[in-house]
Specification:
single chain, 271 residues, alpha+beta
Length: 271
C-alpha cells in the first residue's frame, strides 16, 4: 500500500509538472492538492520508517515540500511563473530520481537490517521479545491486577464498616447557636447519626437548624461530639461527625443504650 501511494504521488506530480510546461489538461493542480490533503507528510514519514524505507524519506519529504511551494506559486502568480520556479529548482530531475529508487523496489520489499521480531519506528529498532519475557510480563500483569482488586475490596469493606448503622434510642442534648435542644439518637455509625428533636421551636415556620450548620451532640455520661448537619425534614435530621468515632466510643454509646433499655420501669405508686 505504501509503494502504491508513492507511485500515485509520483504520477500526480509528473502530471502537474507537464501541465506547467505545456498548459494542457487543466486541473492537475487540484488533483495534486487532493492527494497531499489525503496523505499528510507526517503520517507518510512514519509509514516509510516502519516499513524500512527510511532511506528514501528525506528525498520524498524534500519533493513534497517543493511541490507544495510550486502549488502556492501557481495559485498566486499563475502557470508561467510556477513553470519558471520548477525549472530553476530542478523539480523534474528530483522527481525522476525518486521514481528510479521507488519503482525499482519489489512489492515484497524487506530491508536488510530488519530482523525477525524487530520493528523500526521513530524511537529506533525495538529489541525482540522472547517467550520467557512475554510469559513473565503476563504473570506480572495478573499479579498487579490481583493486588489492585484485593486493595479495592479492603477499602470497600472498610468504608462499609465505617458506615454500618446501629439502631438505638439514646437521649442526647444538642448545642447550637447558644441554644440547647433535647433530642434522641435513633441510629448511629462511626461517621454520623440520625437524630430526632424532642422539643420543637415556638414558630413552626422557622427550622431549628440550618444545613451545613455546626452542632455539638452530647450524650450524658458518655461523650460529646462536634458535627455538622447534612439534611433535615419535619421530624429528623442527619449529622456528620467532624472526626470519625473511635471503636471504643461507639461501643460505649451502644452499651449505654443497652443499659437504658434493660432498666425496669418504676413501680406505680399506691393511691
Amino acid at each position: 500500500m505504501l509503494q502504491s501511494d508513492l507511485a500515485l504521488m509520483r504520477h500526480e506530480m509528473r502530471e502537474f509538472l507537464d501541465y506547467l510546461r505545456t498548459g494542457q489538461q487543466n486541473g492537475q493542480a487540484r488533483k495534486l492538492r487532493h492527494w497531499m490533503a489525503d496523505h499528510p507528510a507526517v503520517p507518510l514519514r512514519m509509514r516509510m520508517r516502519r516499513s524500512g524505507m527510511g532511506a528514501y524519506e528525506p528525498l520524498a519529504m524534500r519533493l513534497i515540500t517543493q511541490q507544495k511551494g510550486l502549488l502556492e506559486v501557481y495559485r498566486i502568480h499563475g502557470r508561467e511563473r510556477a513553470e519558471v520556479s520548477a525549472r530553476r529548482l530542478g523539480a523534474r530531475a528530483l522527481l525522476e530520481d525518486l521514481s528510479r529508487q521507488i519503482v525499482s523496489l519489489p512489492c515484497d520489499f524487506v530491508p536488510k537490517d530488519m530482523q525477525t521480531g524487530q520493528a523500526q519506528a521513530s524511537l529506533g529498532p525495538l529489541l525482540p521479545y522472547r517467550r520467557k519475557t512475554a510469559i513473565a510480563s503476563s504473570l506480572l500483569a495478573l499479579l498487579l491486577c490481583g493486588a489492585g482488586l484485593f486493595l479495592a475490596e479492603r477499602v470497600t469493606r472498610k468504608r462499609l464498616r465505617l458506615r454500618r448503622r446501629y439502631h438505638c434510642s439514646l437521649p442526647c442534648t444538642l448545642h447550637c447557636r447558644q441554644r440547647r435542644f433535647p433530642a434522641k439518637i435513633v441510629d448511629i455509625s462511626r461517621v454520623g447519626a440520625k437524630i430526632r428533636v424532642l422539643e420543637q421551636p415556638q414558630e413552626p415556620r422557622e427550622p431549628p437548624f440550618n444545613i451545613k450548620e455546626g452542632v455539638i451532640a452530647s450524650v450524658p455520661g458518655v461523650a460529646s461530639f462536634d458535627a455538622q448537619i447534612l439534611w433535615q425534614n419535619a421530624d429528623y435530621f442527619g449529622i456528620k461527625f467532624n472526626a470519625k468515632l473511635l471503636r471504643a466510643d461507639l461501643k460505649a454509646l451502644l452499651n449505654s443504650n443497652q443499659q437504658d433499655q434493660e432498666q425496669p420501669e418504676p413501680a406505680a405508686k399506691e393511691a
